[in-house]
Each structure stands twice: as C-alpha cells, then as structure tokens.
Design goal:
By secondary structure, the protein is of the alpha/beta class. The chain has one domain: Rossmann fold (3-Layer(aba) Sandwich). It has ten helices and eight strands. Strands 3-2-1-4-5-6-7-8 form an eight-stranded mixed sheet, with helices on both faces. Helix 2 links the parallel strand 2 and strand 3. The radius of gyration is 20 Å and the shape is globular. It comes from Zavarzinia compransoris.
Length: 301
C-alpha cells in the first residue's frame, strides 16, 4: 500500500480502527473518519476516537488525517474524499465500515429507526463510493470494500433495518463492480466477525444467549484488517464482485444467489397447478429460518 491513500469510515474504534492502523503499517496514508457518535448514531460531539487513531499512526511514523463527517451526508462524503486529495494528492481505496444499530422487532420498529440504519450503512456506502468514483475513473484504478454482515446474508432476530441495509450493500457492491470494471475499479463486500460495541449490544438474558456472547468475545476486531489491506492492495487487483467473511483466523468466500431448482410446464401455470406441483417439488430445498448463530456454530479459532 506504499504511496496509496485510503479512506476508512467509522475508523475511530473496533474494526475500522484496526483497518486504519494496518493500512498505515502497510504504507498507506489514511483519512480516519469517525463521527464520534453513540451506537444508535446520535450525538457527534465526541471527536476524540478519530484523533486518537491519527495520533497512533503518526507516532508510528505514518501519515493520517482525521475527518468527522457523516457518511449519511453526500456533502460530508465528498469532503472525506477531498481530505485525501488535499492531504495526500490522491485516493486509491475506500473502506466503508461506518455503522449504527437500532435493533427492535419488525412489528415494533419505527420508521425513523429503519431510515437511520439504512442512511448510514447503505446510503453511506453509496455516498462515499460515489464521491470517489470520478477520481477512480480518471486514474483508471481504485478499490472499494463494503462491510456487509451475516445478519443480512443469513438472518437475525430484531434487525430488519440492519439486515435490509447489509444485504443491500451486497447488491450495491456487485453493481459497482459491474459498472466500474471497464475503469479497472474493483468492489467487494466483507462480513466481519468481531467483538465490538455493536456486537456488545446483543442481549444476554438467557443461558443460550450468554454462551453465544461469551463465544463472540473471542472475536478480535484487529483480525479483520490484514484481509482488507490485501484486498485493496495491488495483489487483489483481479478480485472483484465477491462476498467474503473474516472470523478470527478463518476467511470465507460466500456463495451468491443462483437457481437451485426449476419447475416447468408446457401448458403454463395456474394458481392450482403451482400449489399442487411446485410447492411440493421445491419443499425439500426451501431454506429454514436460520439465524447467523445457527450456521456459525463452532468456536472461533
């Protein structure tokens, strides 16, 4: 990453902090973005996390500047990219890590809670990517990494807003990969498994929940960073349009939606024939209502 400039959003804590520090260690100049908000995305007065990460990078001999804008604002996103251009003369990669949570059961979810999470995760990823796109196009290179989640890829209770945003990010990443391929710009999604303040909000009211939380505490946020750095480096130049996961020392490549069964009739379908033939034919291949914890049942390694 020597000579490259990178924007990492939500980089004041947790996964984002680890990525910013690893980017700098690999030689990149880093725009450390963090709004300094609460987990719900409220506030914004606490700007110290970004400044602290910048101080760490500079103390180690690296280059970094802090930015306190909101990814939910298109104008702020453009300022983040401008900060890279003004400070380092270029922008080579964007890591869309900023996030918030407003968990509640779907039938109890308020519109404001849905909109707030979509605005940060999904719209925020669009805003920063869109702001970087003209520079990437002009220099015929660039890398985008968007944080998805197994909550979106698989499922979780009480996260309709978060699940919609995180699965939407997969579609956004693939769209960017397709549309920007001719400009040598690549885009990938990564589902990070890490114990952060977002995960710390998971309730532990039952013995089962408590056991799950204890397992999640083993997930070190800094473990995500090496993969993200490699993905944005020249070594990842041919990797685009993919969905990955990183869980401590494990790295996953996730499948993408493809047909698994078909049903055909020469006469055309009626509601009755669908009910009589298609549903029974497909039943063995229907996906159960798994949650993320039902799929990732083994301890982190």
């Amino acid at each position: 990453m020597a000579g490259k400039a990178v924007l990492v959003t939500g980089a004041g804590r947790g996964v984002g902090r680890g990525i910013a520090l690893e980017m700098a260690a690999a030689g990149a100049a880093v725009v450390v973005n963090d709004l300094g908000t609460s987990l719900k995305g409220d506030g914004g007065e606490d700007v110290s996390p970004a400044e602290q990460v910048v101080a760490e990078i500079r103390a180690a001999g690296g280059k970094a500047v802090a930015n306190h804008g909101s990814v939910a604002s298109s104008a702020d996103a453009k300022e983040m990219i401008k900060a890279a251009i003004d400070s380092f003369g270029r922008i080579d990669a964007v890591v869309n890590n900023a996030g918030n949570l407003r968990d509640t059961l779907f039938h109890k979810m308020e519109e404001a809670d849905f909109d707030a999470v979509i605005a940060v995760h999904l719209k925020g990823s669009f805003n920063t990517s869109s702001a970087a796109a003209p520079y990437f196009k002009e220099q015929a290179s660039g890398a985008l990494v968007h944080m998805t989640s197994t909550s979106g890829l698989i499922g979780n209770m009480g996260q309709a807003n978060y699940m919609a945003a995180k699965l939407g990010i997969v579609g956004l990443s693939k769209a960017i990969a397709i549309d920007m391929a001719r400009f040598n710009v690549r885009s990938n999604a990564v589902a990070p498994f890490a114990w952060t303040r977002m995960v710390d909000s998971i309730p532990a009211n039952t013995p089962e929940q408590a056991r799950r939380v204890e397992g999640l505490k083993k997930l070190v946020p800094e473990k995500i960073a090496p993969f993200v750095v490699a993905l944005t480096s020249d070594a990842g130049a041919k990797v685009t349009g993919q969905v990955f996961g990183v869980r401590n020392n494990e790295i996953y490549l996730f499948s993408q939606s493809r047909p698994i069964r078909t049903a055909h009739t020469a006469e055309g379908w009626t509601p009755d024939s669908v009910a009589e033939r298609v549903f029974p034919q497909f039943a063995n291949d229907f996906y159960p209502l798994h949650r993320s914890g039902d799929v990732f049942t083994w301890d982190p390694v």
